[in-house]
Amino acid sequence: xxxxxxxxxxxxxxxxxxxxxxxxxxxxxxxxxxxxxxxxxxxxxxxxxxxxxxxxxxxxxxxxxxxxxxxxxxxxxxxxxxxxxxxxxxxxxxxxxxxxxxxxxxxxxxxxxxxxxxxxxxxxxxxxxxxxxxxxxxxxxxxxxxxxxxxxxxxxxxxxxxxxxxxxxxxxxx
Length: 174
What we know:
Helix content is 64%, strand content 0%. The longest helix is centred in the last third of the chain and has 37 residues, at 111-147. The chain is an all-alpha fold.
């Protein structure tokens, strides 16, 4: 082990120069170093803030007097209850999400409602087709009686022979 440390000391030529003041200071752990830096930074920020506030107080001398209205509260309640502001915002967000979820559940049709809709829709179309077929079938009979001809185009009455010959035939799908 001593050979290794001797070899390291021979290879490492850098030797830091520490002054006597630094040598006399007590050693600190990384935690003390980190917290010390944070505390020092915090003190600097506090000093700057106090300096700024003092400067603003010199420049801005007007201080408005605001009358509190009885029975009226701030919606955010930042001044009356500043500690619960974040919890109130989270609670409001949760309530809004619940309301949106409720609205989407109420407005969105369920699968059952879609089945019922399409069942009656296709039933309606089926009935309409049967009505159209019924009307077409009776329309053929009515047209045949009106023209007094058969569907083969033969004239049943001598007086309508000329008219039957000039009228176009009714298509079979009618």
